[in-house]
Amino acid sequence: MPVAVCSAALPFDVAAALRGVAEVRAPAAGRMSRAELLAAVRDADALISLLVDRVDEELLAAAPRLRVVANCAVGYDNVDVAAATARGVAVTHTPDVLTDATADFTWALLLAVARRVVEGDALVRSGTWAGWEPGQLLGAPIAGRTLGIVGFGRIGRAVARRARGFDMAILYASPRPAGADAAALAARRVSLDELLAEADVVSLHCPLTDATRHLIDRRALAAMKSTALLVNTARGACVDEAALVDALEAGDIAGAALDVFEREPDVHPGLVASPKVVLAPHAGSATTAARAEMARLCAGAVRDVLSGRRPAHLLNPEALR
Ligand code: GLV
């Protein structure tokens, strides 16, 4: 019986989904450490990995029987896809099923930072709130303002659809025009520089690649309005965190809401200390339904590859030729 290693306990019965196809080895709770994972994949035919697992040359070399890596995330910057392809290992990911959850959460963060929800919560809990005051916790207006979306894929477009309900003008920066979808949303494609200069809220929805690492750097932050807000539910390294801390301190931008960080789980102390920042623990897809569907997709991919079928959401079809 082939062996499928699942690096974490998932909110879906992977073993039941793979009954008769593979013996599933997964921790009863929590997730495997790097050392545990490297040991576990030694005789694995399939791996269900998390975005925090580095699926690199070292891991692939430690897993000579591996045929498929099903990455339980839409982002796959943690996987060396080229190295997997060179070894004939199929790589899949989990788009679509987390789009709404992540777009909803982007809006939760956007509104939280604009209207200072976390500061308000802390004030009420502190017992020091002395009652309503006209100048208390004034925030930024959102309705009717301009939203700049960087990366106009599934999640970026879902965030834009929600923005229509707030009567926002929508700008997007993307390597490709979005065609009919953009027209339906009245979204205008502009250069990144134009977007940074015009948007009241800049929201990141691009994958992390060599081209997007530190896309939001000192220069980009200086180009934003001093009243603008930055929201990042994409990948932490798309933003230069040290530059962001400086920009917030200098008043170059008004605030930031961050779900992702450059060196998770570490967070730059300047962000932790800043009242202008709302922080979340990489929870964009964290709904019961989305996380279960992501795991179900991964089990399906493992089942398909081990049964000689082409899986959905295959990132490297060349690996199966
Ligand atoms: C979450 O960050 C994902 O890529 O699924």
Layout of SSEs?
Blueprint: E1 3-6, H1 14-17, E2 23-25, H2 34-40, E3 46-49, H3 57-61, E4 68-71, H4 81-86, E5 90-92, H5 99-114, H6 117-126, E6 146-150, H7 154-164, E7 169-173, H8 180-184, E8 187-189, H9 192-198, E9 201-204, H10 218-223, E10 229-232, H11 241-250, E11 255-258, H12 269-272, E12 277-279, H13 288-306
Parallel strand pairs: 1-2, 1-3, 3-4, 4-5, 6-7, 6-9, 7-8, 9-10, 10-11, 11-12
The chain binds glyoxylic acid (GLV).
Using brief descriptors, characterize the structure shown.
binds glyoxylic acid, globular, five-stranded parallel sheet, 321 residues, alpha/beta, single chain, seven-stranded parallel sheet
Low-pLDDT residue spans:
none
Give the strand line-up of the largest sheet: 8-7-6-9-10-11-12
Distance between the termini: 24 Å
Average of pLDDT: 98
Number of strands: 12
Q: Which structural category fits the helices and strands?
A: alpha/beta
**Basic shape:** globular
- Count, helices: 13
Strand content is 5-15%
Bound molecules: glyoxylic acid
Helices and strands, in N-to-C order?
EHEHEHEHEHHEHEHEHEHEHEHEH
Helical residues, percent: 25-40%
Main beta-sheet annotation: 7 strands, parallel
What would you report as the Rg, rounded to the nearest angstrom? 21 Å
